[in-house]
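It is worth pausing here to work through a concrete case rather than discussing structure prediction in the abstract. The textbook approach is simple: state the sequence, then state the predicted structure, then interpret. We follow exactly that order.
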Amino acid sequence: MHKLILAAAFTASFAISIGVTPASADPQMLGIVQTVSAVPLHCSNGECGAELTSICLQEERVRPMPGQAYFPHDPNTVGLTGIRRDGSRIAILVEDVLKFSSARGYSSVRVSLSKDVLRQYDVASVELSIDEGLTLIPETGPAVNADSLTEGDIELGAGRLRQTATVIVDQEGDKADASQVLARMIDNLPRHGRANFETRSEIWSTTGVPVAQSLSTRGSYRARLAYNGCYRKTRFGDQTLRECLGLAHDDLIQDLNDDYWEAVKTGT
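Step two, the predicted structure:
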């Protein structure tokens, strides 16, 4: 509740003005939750990528379809590091190489780059970090209509709305923490097909635990419960462990997004 009270300081002055409009041509702007540790990009089939936890900043706009392209409003909030074989590190310009796209609606974004970047910079691997306040703007076609994002929409979304989301979501410290653990486990599971028994059994100890150690106890506990439930649920049937963890991740973020939307509407 204290999160919502803090959010009122940001939202009270403009909550009434934004209102609710019909689904718009341009999809929702998204906020990427600040990462608590470096996120490694996993490479396969000529591409390196990872999933990032995201939230919807504009409830009244249309939900993004999977694959909807985005670009960062402030690229300086994204850090991209190349790691050479000798362990040395170099910074890589984000604008030159990174691509952002919706993975599952507004709750998850896939960030990726071509594997050619590793050869270009002579690095063995890459990792990224997200600072507080990253906002993504949807890439749209050249056509402009009454429902297109305006400069005012973008200024509001990347400004006061994103500040409110930071208080309610990024700094929440429970569900947001759990979502980051789940995202890292999702990255380490096959994007297509089922994981083998060893991978399924060890994913918590090899991936979940190292990330959870730097997060809240309750967040780590929530992530472990989600993993245990998904492990049992996906022993048989068509659903994969990755798919189940994705649903668990999105449920956590939906709760936070609901809190944010309510704060924006009412300023309470």
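Step three, interpretation. The longest helix spans residues 241-266. Confidence is low (pLDDT under 50) at residues 1-24.
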